[in-house]
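Archive record:
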Amino acid sequence: MHKYIEEITLNTWPAEQSVLLEGWVLRTSAGYTKRANSVNPLYGLDAQQSGLEIMDKIRLAEQYYAGAGLNTVFKITPFIQPGDLDERLAEQGYEIVEPSSVRTLDLQDLPAPAGRYNVQIREELTVDWLEAFAEMSDLSSASRDTLRRMLSASSLKQGYALLLKDDIPAACGLGVIQHGYIGLYDVCTAPAFRRQGMAEEMLRSLLNWAKNLGAAHSFLQVVQANAGASALYDKLGFQEIYQYWYRVKSRH
């Protein structure tokens, strides 16, 4: 099941381009987010099959990302192929960044949102949502354009949640549904409205929206250093199922 979550993550957070390299998925999206600009080595060739040596595959991946003007980034999960890839990358000077936690939640006994705030959920990307997220996350205009292209190209069911406080965007988030799971992304609260329960209310509304559409489970990924977000997800009942990190090699 856990590896299945990784597959759904690839789909619900789409990249602008994906290239296969003997089972490895190389993704690029103009450098916006490591999720969409990294090697996902989930698969490999069977032992009976002849293929590239691992170091040759690493070098080809490096050439691909150099051609895209990006650092080479590998997402390291418990499911990597081959199993010793993390050690091999460390030997090549790749450094660990952003250790993260993957968490899931069963939506069966999901409580209804408190209804304290006005939460709007749209099933298509809107200018209002994109502008609110860009402002809350201090997104550059180039990254905003990349995000718009990424999300607009997806054919999966999307829910763009925007919580308003006195008609002012205060919190936002994105939920994407596939195969009974809703993945949560881009959860933000404006600095002036933090520590008031708004992100919790927004997420409860988004999860109930997904449940009403038939989703039975939710998953998310959170950087371990983000204590505030981790505390929120603990409160909502999310449970860690595994951890991952990135290995990054600078082009300089």
User: Anything to note?
Assistant: The mean pLDDT is 94.
